[in-house]
Amino acid sequence: MGVADSGTVGRTNQTVDRTNIHRIWRAVLAAIALGVAVACYCAPVLLIVIGVLLVGLLCARLVYRDRGRFIPNLYARDIRLYDEAYQAFITQSLTELRGHRIPGHPLLWEASQLPEPTQENSDELLLDLGVWIGWSTRLTSDASGRTVYGFDTFEGLVEDWQIEDQFLIKQGTFSLSDPLSQRFIRETGVTLHDGIPGTLGRKVHYVKGRTYETLAPFLAERPGAPIRLFHMDLDTYESCLHGLETCKDRFVEGSILVFDEYLVTNGEMLAFFEFQARYGLEFQYRAWGLEVGEMNAAMVTSRFKRVMYYLAAIAIHLLDGRYLWKIFTKRFWRFWLGAPIGDIVFMLGAAGVRKSVSLEITGMGKLDPTRH
Ligand SMILES: C[S@@+](CC[C@H](N)C(=O)[O-])C[C@H]1O[C@@H](n2cnc3c(N)ncnc32)[C@H](O)[C@@H]1O
Predict the structure, then answer these.
(1) Phi, psi at residue 328, to the nearest 5°?
(2) DSSP character at residue 338
(3) Helix, strand, or coil here: 85?
(4) Nearest C-alpha to atom 27 of ligand 1 is from which residue?
(5) Ligand 1 atom closest to residue 211's alpha carbon, by position in its atom list
(6) Residue 78: exposure state from Cβ atoms within 10 A (0-12, 13-18, ≥19)
(7) What is the DSSP letter of 114?
(8) Could you identify the atom of ligand 1 that is nearest to the CA of residue 134?
(9) 42, 121, 191, 248: least surrounded by Cβ within 10 Å?
């Protein structure tokens, strides 16, 4: 286990606006709508064609009976493939989360809500599990003004990551030696010291190694320290469940857990479902918003390159967007026919998928030490 060390700064507001890409995306959507309106003005027959299509879509939504059966990440997966208890958990979670949509990143939002660092809360731990080139850790420290501990192999995923029935991301992806990592390291001004990202003046400590080996010794060195903020971005079900289990005795009422990929039903959500069921944990959802990983592009120092990254991401979203183009796929129709209107607006409002969720532990269940 290696540890890289810190500088000192208080709570800071970065000048970089991390939701810019989504604003540009909404401007693109508005421009498309304006283009269609102008085309309709010039050729009124288009108005009739579009009207017929819209009425057809509305009628199809009325007869389509599978609303709510697919999770709104990509309206990807029919949740009937799971047992009844997990199906009920997913359905209940989404119902609750719809009341907690936020435009930004749950991680940074939660970090900014934490009380200022004081002598009394100095033992509280803020953990960032899965840091890649380190920006999630640094920005969490900026937003909270507190010390944040970031954990990573810096050699990539420990397991293969199967995302629903769609993609397989191989073990080793996100290694700092990857060309993409190297490019972002260079373009966001990150330095490396013995294979560990530099702190860049923030109150962060990076712990190198697999969480399977690093997390328990780290906690053992800080006996009794409660976890105030737990950010899970290790991606895989296995690493997520292990992280939750290892930290379980340090969670307290009021601990905030943020999952970057919560709406992947065979990953973080499944791990949390099993974890909370095993210990009878009580919790409440607090926010549903943007994944934190997306903000790496916002940290690119050259404005020109940053805008280029945004435009490339938007182009990929448009061309690969499962909601927009893929009319020959079931997923496309599940989205347009089955998704609640609010979800459609929420999903289309961002140039990427919104999968990140935060929650607060409100009751310790079997983890309550007074029950032993
Ligand atoms: C998606 S990246 C994290 C992105 C980062 N939070 C951000 O916002 O830029 C996932 C990271 O988790 C790390 N990782 C996955 N499983 C791990 C494990 N069990 N132990 C340590 N690191 C792990 C990978 O090396 C990778 O860098």
Answers:
(1) -95, 10
(2) I
(3) helix
(4) 132
(5) 20
(6) middle
(7) S
(8) 9
(9) 42
Cβ atoms 359, 284 nearer than 8 A: yes
Mutation test residue for ligand 1: of 107, 126, 132, 177, the one with most atoms within 8 Å of CB:
132
- The pLDDT assigned to 3 comes to 37
To test the pocket of ligand 1, the residue of 152, 190, 261, 295 to mutate (highest count of ligand atoms within 8 Å of its CB) is 152
Query: Side chain identity at 244, as an amino acid letter?
Result: L
Give burial (CB, 10 Å; 0-12/13-18/19+) of 53. exposed
The per-residue pLDDT for range 101-152, each reduced to its tens digit, is: 998 899 999 999 999 888 888 899 999 999 999 999 999 999 999 999 999 9
- Tens-digit pLDDT profile for residues 169-192: 999 999 999 999 999 999 999 999
The size of the chain, in residues, is 372
Structural domain count of the chain: 1
Reported confidence tier of residue 2, pLDDT bands at 50, 70, 90 = very low
Across 166-292, the runs of DSSP E, i.e. the strands, are 167-169, 192-193, 196-197, 204-208, 227-232, 251-259, 282-289
DSSP 124-152: -EEEEE--TTSHHHHHHHHHH-S-EEEEE
The residue whose CA has the least distance to atom 8 of ligand 1 is 293
Measured from the CB, is residue 153 less than 6 Å from ligand 1? yes
237 lines ligand 1 (CB under 6 A): no
Q: Whose CA is nearest to atom 7 of ligand 1?
A: 293
Write the single-letter amino acid at 55.
V
Helix, coil or strand: residue 169: strand
- Domain range for 40 is 2-371
53-72: pLDDT as tens digits: 999 989 988 888 777 777 76
pLDDT value, residue 248 = 96
